[in-house]
Automatic annotation (TrEMBL):
Belongs to the glycosyl hydrolase 16 family. It is found in: Secreted, Cell wall; Secreted, Extracellular space, Apoplast. SUPFAM superfamilies: Concanavalin A-like lectins/glucanases (SSF49899). Its EC number is 2.4.1.207. It is an enzyme of class 2 (transferase). Residues 1-26 form the signal peptide. Residues 24-240 form the GH16 domain. This is Xyloglucan endotransglucosylase/hydrolase. Contains at least one intrachain disulfide bond essential for its enzymatic activity. The keyword Lipid biosynthesis does not apply. GO terms for cellular component: apoplast.
C-alpha cells in the first residue's frame, strides 16, 4: 500500500510539473526589466476625450469613466479608431493600453503617428502595431517608420513582450525629436532610431496626428495571414486611458512648424530638452536587455528581403 501511495504521489507531482511546463510554454516566460527613468511621469496625463476625436467606426468607440478612458471595438461590422485633435511636430506621445484576451489571430491594435491625410504621396509615419496570436501564443509587438513616402522600404522590428498585455494597462510611448525617435514600453526603450546622415532622407519630418485603432489585419498580421480573424470570439475590445500628448502643436491654417506652441507649461521640453536628446546609461541598459531577450526580427538582419541593406543598417 505504501508503494502504491508513493507511486501515486510521484505521478501526481510529475503531472503537476508537466502542467506547469505547458502553461509556461503557452503563455511565454515573464521577465522583469531593468529599472529605468519614468519619462511618463514628467508630463500630464489627459482624459481620452480631451485629446482625441473619433477617427472611424464611431459605433464601436465607447467612451468610459466620463471620457477619461475609451474602449475600441472590432466586430464583424467594423473596427474603430481615435485621432488626436491636434497635429504635432516633434514631442512625447503615450497611451496606456489593455489588449483583448483569448484567441486574437488577425487582430491589429495600432498606436501610431501619421500625416497620410495631408501628404498622401509623401507621408511620414511612426508605428506601434500589436499583432494578435493563434491558440495561446504571445502577442507580437511590431515597430515601423516611414519618412517622406518611403513605404517601399519596411523598417520593421518585432518583439515578444515580457508581460501579459491582456491582464492590465501598459504604457506605449513614442518620443520624436530632431535627435532621435525612441519607442518605449512601460518607459523601457525597445528601439532607437538616431537621426543621422544615413537615414536623414527618410526621417519623419512633417507634423503628424496621433492615432489609436483596432482593425482586421487577417491578410498579414498573424503568421503572414495564415490565421485570419475568427469572429466567433468577437467582439475584440482594447481599452485606452492616461494619454499624453506633449509637443509642438501645429497652429491652424498653417503647416509652418516655426509657429507651433506648447500645450503644457512644463519646463521639460521633449523637443529640445537635454534629457531627451540621447538615452541615459540606465535607458541604454534597458534597450540592450529588450533587444537581446525579446527582439526576434529586425529588417537590418533580413538579407533575404534586402540584397543591399538600407544605409542606416551599416552606418554604425
Amino acid at each position: 500500500m505504501d508503494f502504491f501511495h508513493h507511486n501515486k504521489t510521484f505521478l501526481l507531482s510529475q503531472f503537476f510539473i508537466f502542467c506547469m511546463i505547458v502553461v509556461v510554454s503557452c503563455r511565454g516566460p515573464v521577465y522583469k526589466p531593468p529599472e529605468v527613468e519614468k519619462l511618463t511621469d514628467h508630463f500630464s496625463r489627459l482624459s481620452v476625450n480631451q485629446g482625441y476625436n473619433v477617427f472611424f467606426g464611431g459605433a464601436n468607440v465607447r467612451m468610459t469613466n466620463n471620457g477619461s478612458s475609451a474602449d475600441l471595438i472590432l466586430d464583424k461590422s467594423s473596427g474603430s479608431g481615435l485621432i488626436s485633435k491636434e497635429k504635432y511636430y516633434y514631442g512625447f506621445f503615450n497611451a496606456a493600453l489593455k489588449l483583448p484576451a483569448h484567441f486574437t489571430s488577425g487582430v491589429v491594435i495600432a498606436f501610431y503617428m501619421s500625416n497620410s491625410d495631408v501628404f498622401p504621396h509623401n507621408h511620414d509615419e511612426i508605428d506601434f502595431e500589436l499583432l494578435g496570436h493563434d491558440k495561446r501564443r504571445d502577442w507580437v509587438l511590431q515597430t515601423n517608420l516611414y519618412g517622406n513616402g518611403s513605404v517601399h522600404t519596411g523598417r520593421e522590428e518585432k518583439f515578444y513582450l515580457w508581460f501579459d498585455p491582456t491582464l492590465d494597462f501598459h504604457d506605449y510611448t513614442i518620443l520624436w525629436n530632431n535627435h532621435h525617435i525612441v519607442f518605449l514600453v512601460d518607459n523601457v526603450p525597445i528601439r532607437e532610431v538616431v537621426h543621422n546622415t544615413a537615414i536623414s532622407s527618410v526621417y519623419p519630418s512633417k507634423p503628424m496626428s496621433v492615432i489609436a485603432t483596432i482593425w482586421d489585419g487577417s491578410e498579414w498580421a498573424t503568421h503572414g495571414g495564415k490565421y485570419p480573424v475568427n469572429y466567433q470570439y468577437a467582439p475584440f475590445v482594447t481599452s485606452m486611458k492616461e494619454v499624453e500628448l506633449e509637443g509642438c502643436v501645429r497652429q491652424q491654417n498653417t503647416s509652418a512648424t516655426s509657429t507651433c506652441f506648447r500645450r503644457s507649461t512644463s519646463s521639460l521640453d521633449p523637443v529640445d530638452g537635454e534629457e531627451f536628446m540621447k538615452l541615459s546609461q540606465q535607458q541604454m541598459t534597458g534597450l540592450d536587455w529588450v533587444r537581446r531577450k525579446h527582439m526576434f526580427y529586425s529588417y537590418c538582419q533580413d538579407t533575404n528581403r534586402y540584397k543591399v541593406l538600407p544605409p542606416e543598417c551599416t552606418s554604425n
